[in-house]
Specification:
By secondary structure, the protein is α/β, with parallel strands linked by helices. The chain has one domain: Glycosidases (TIM Barrel). It is about 40% helix and about 15% strand. It has 16 helices and 13 strands. It has helices spanning about 20-25, 35-40, 60-75, 85-90, 95-110, 130, 140-155, 170-180, 190-215, 235-260, 265-270, 275-280, 285, 350-370, 395-415, 455-465, and strands at about 15-20, 80, 115-120, 160-165, 220-225, 230, 295, 300-305, 335, 370-375, 420-425, 445, 450-455. The protein has an eight-stranded parallel beta barrel with strand order 1-2-3-4-5-7-10-11, surrounded by six helices. A three-stranded mixed beta sheet has the order 6-8-9, covered by helices on one side. Helix 3 runs parallel beside helix 5 (about 95-110) and helix 7 runs parallel beside helix 9 (about 190-215).
């Protein structure tokens, strides 16, 4: 029988939740904010389920005080949020004092409730005016990002110590410039590779500028990572399929940041796409500037093969817009189901993959570099049912939360010093190309009334935080 003895978390372990500016703030054109690429993308026919957009979202811009009070009620120790570039520097131009003031008020509210602010500078909302000049395919955008980082530091650096440059650069390059599934919706492998490099260059430039400005900051980046397993580990073609996806999903970002070089095998995979002309002398020295923290976002693992199968995973596209693989060299790779439980996103629930991922990242990357490791996103969408009394008994999400916290404890038991966990998401929100069709929150949002209702998963999370044990 499994042990019923509670498993305790380390005393310094932080419990939090995460959101992103475009997904919750709304106030799309209030107080000087102008269009981001997501404002423009949501106007494209069929780009987002039901034609949804983030114009109002969760109206957090106007309701942030109540939302912070709710965070305190749940017992959160830290809150990970992002700053909107389109709000702080509309059109990529001069600083907008009203935009910065919003984040200053938010930080004060968090600190007043004893909640540590964990700031992400960029969560995909590039000013549309910069996209019209090439976006992340334009090397100049990396330098504009470093300027934006300093502007935010001018306003918040006296109160915020945890700084993340980018959230999931794989999504804002490969998924956005190759797959076309996210803003700006381009489908060009060469453009996606260039965008990825310039995002990493922007990260390194911002790290350098912030480090020079303030030596007391904890600086890092957040990557979405996965475990990639071959369907048949004894088959060379399946092993190569796993190598390619691992290379383009994990190592393409981990290696330059923490080892100062792109993986040789990945460079061979993308040969002929002009990537060698994008990387300039000295870039990798900038990208690999030392960081203090790495955030890992994990939702599910991957099972891949060189052969298709009847149970191959085919995630439904949110629209009829033609899509291409977001991997620039994934020809002949097929994703397979393992018969695991799935979420409303058709993602398999694989908590043991998180344990393996954390062990690998620690042993191969963060441990040797002395970089603190946290799980900065982990969560699940389910089709919640609101009971007549207004309660939401989301047992599947409770199980997801508990099993993945258990996976983190397994990694800690294996010697991985994991410093914190941020559930995605604090509340239901605008879920990118899925609009409001998918709900990840531990707090339900009624989009008609903006009423917030903690779900059973929120109650369970509060119990875990209070007891500091699973």
């Amino acid at each position: 029988m499994p042990s019923t003895t509670p498993r305790s978390f380390p005393p310094e372990f932080l419990f939090g939740a995460a959101t992103a500016a475009y997904q919750i703030e709304g106030a799309a054109h209030d107080d000087g904010r102008t269009d981001s690429i997501w404002d423009a993308f949501t106007r494209l026919p069929g780009a987002v389920v039901n034609g949804d957009n983030g114009d109002v979202a969760c109206d957090h811009y106007h309701r942030y005080r109540d939302d912070v009070a709710l965070m305190a009620q749940l017992g959160l120790q830290t809150y990970r949020f992002s700053t909107s570039w389109a709000r702080v520097r509309p059109d990529g131009g001069p600083v907008n004092p009203q935009g910065l003031d919003f984040y200053s008020r938010l930080v004060d509210e968090l600190l007043g409730k004893g909640i540590m602010p964990w700031l992400t500078l960029y969560h995909w909302d590039l000013p549309q005016a910069l996209e019209e000049n090439g976006g992340w395919t334009n090397r100049d955008t990396a330098y504009r990002f470093a300027e934006f980082a300093l502007d935010v530091h001018d306003a918040l650096g006296d109160r915020v110590t945890a700084w993340t440059t980018l959230n999931e650069p794989w999504c804002s390059s490969f998924l956005s410039y190759i797959g076309g599934e996210h803003a700006p919706g381009r489908q060009d492998p060469a453009a996606g590779l260039a965008a990825a490099h310039h995002l990493l260059l922007g990260h390194g430039l911002a790290i350098g500028e912030l480090r020079a400005r303030d030596e007391n900051l904890s600086l890092g980046i957040t990557l979405n990572l996965s475990v990639v397993d071959p369907v048949d580990a004894g088959d060379a073609a399946d092993r190569d399929a796993a190598r390619r996806i691992d290379g383009q999903f994990n190592r393409f970002f981990l290696d330059p940041i923490l080892r100062g070089a792109y993986p040789d095998d990945v460079l061979e995979d993308v040969a002929g796409l002009g990537f060698e002309r994008v990387v300039k002398p000295g870039d990798l020295e900038i990208i690999s500037r030392p960081i203090d923290a790495l955030g890992v976002n994990y939702y599910h693992g991957e099972s891949v093969s060189a052969r298709p199968a009847g149970d191959e995973i085919t995630t439904a596209a949110p629209s009829e817009r033609p899509k291409r693989s977001p991997f620039p060299a994934a020809d002949g790779v097929h994703w397979h189901s393992r018969g695991l439980p799935i979420t409303a996103m058709d993602w398999e629930v694989q908590p043991e993959g998180l344990t393996r991922l954390l062990i690998r990242v620690h042993e191969e990357y963060t441990g040797p570099a002395g970089v603190a490791l946290s799980v900065t996103e982990n969560g699940a969408a389910y089709d919640d049912v609101v009971e007549p009394d207004g309660s939401i008994h989301d047992a599947e999400r409770v199980a997801f939360l508990e099993s993945h916290l258990g996976a983190i404890l397994d990694a800690i038991d294996a010697g991985v010093p994991v410093h914190g966990y941020f559930y995605w998401s604090l509340m239901d929100n605008f879920e990118w190309a899925w609009g409001y069709d998918k709900r990840f929150g531990i707090v339900r949002v009624d989009y008609d009334t903006q009423e917030r209702t903690p779900k059973d998963s929120a109650i369970a999370y509060t119990r875990i935080i209070t007891g500091r044990a699973l």
